[in-house]
Amino acid sequence: MKPASRAVHAGRDLGARSPLAPDLSTAAVHVFTDLDDYDAVARGERPGYYYGRNSNSNREMLERAVAELEGAEAGVATASGMAALHGAILALAPKPTKIVATRELYGGTAALLRQDLEPAGYEVQFVDLTDPDTVRGAVQGAGLVVAETITNPLCGVPDLEAIAALTRERGVPFLVDNTFATPLLLRPLELGASMVMHSATKYLGGHSDLVAGVIVGDAKTMGVARARSARTGTPLGPFDAWLALRGLRTLDVRMRRHSDNSLALARAMQSMPGIARVHHPLLEASPFFPVARRLLPHGSGGMMAFDLQGGRSEVQQMINRLELVTFAASLGGVETTISYPELTSHRGLSPSERAELGVGPGTVRVSVGIEDPSDILADFAHALA
């Protein structure tokens, strides 16, 4: 089955008289009449559900669907992308070790590593994962490598295939945040990653109406992650799982439109007034273009960024003049939004740390939606005139 068809059907086995749209099961607990039957279900030896924190049909459908799309054996759905990331790290590196992470890491991920894992004994090293020599040196002695398919907010694309080869050679687990690309544009497990995580709040859900996370990988590691999620109370609730699965059904058509629109806007912005630089991995002038063209031949999704001359005051003036596009501190919805990393995703970093990453007072991240591209371009052209 092609990926577009998988997105529509993954996670369910329909039979006669099955509801075409899945029922929503909000039950916190299920009734049993036989002790041995309960024991078998609780052990996972027999299909069924017994307690909402441990098992739920809507959550299970979402887990199966994302795992199928990513080419994984199993998945675990959690109450947020950060819960998924935390569960993934502890599943792959349960004891304090050296974690190598891309220096362009999402601010929330960086904060988790610095403020929660470092005090617990983990050593965190932020490196440029686009430099092969740097990666080769950093992986030596590491217990985990963490990368993003497309970095946040400047949309760099590390060579995941090369990094996976290095980590595999040294026996180091490799975790990839595939939120920006989704399994419709790239499947990191096929390149050699150990585990993939998603903030399903973003493109998988796609409608800015839920908060969720999903991790996928081999069945044994997912079993460890699922047990910890149940113990720590982070499983995804039924309704958010139901919404995420509904959003997943249109993922293919949305990602095609997101990809086309973002590239069209990036190209147009190169000649708009006041723009110092445009960040999009599939622009021919991007330093990431050769890798992006190889790893993301069908598009890179809706994410891009640009640097506005003049800084924060000019960003505010642009926001005041935008009519279609809105300022919102998230991404991946059907609507076009902008975010200001200095105050949102990277507010936890110092000005010098942001400057080192290339994030300045004029940096604006754009989550390009699925509106008519001419309307998106016209709104930015008007706001920047």
Strand percentage:
5-15%
User: What's the story with the biggest beta sheet?
Assistant: 7 strands, mixed
Mean of residue pLDDT values: 96
Q: Uncertain segments of ≥5 residues (pLDDT<50)? A: none
Secondary-structure element order, as H and E? HHHEHEHEHEHEHHEEHHHEHEHEEHEH
Biggest sheet strand order reads 1-7-6-5-4-2-3
Overall, the morphology is globular
The proportion of residues forming helix, as a percent range, comes to 40-55%
Our Rg estimate from Cα atoms comes to 21 Å
Keywords:
385 residues; alpha/beta; five-stranded mixed sheet; 16 helices; single chain; 12 strands
Structure description:
The chain is an alpha/beta fold. 42% of the residues lie in helices and 14% in strands. The chain has 16 helices and twelve strands. It has helices at 3-9, 35-43, 57-70, 81-92, 107-117, 132-139, 160-170, 182-185, 188-191, 219-232, 238-248, 251-269, 289-295, 312-321, 351-357, 373-384; strands at 74-78, 98-102, 123-127, 144-148, 174-177, 195-199, 213-217, 275-279, 303-308, 326-327, 337-339, 363-367. Helix 4 packs across helix 10 (219-232), helix 6 (132-139) runs parallel beside helix 7 and helix 12 packs parallel to helix 16 (373-384).
Please provide a brief summary of the model.
The chain has 385 residues and is α/β, with parallel strands linked by helices. The protein is built from 16 helices and twelve strands.
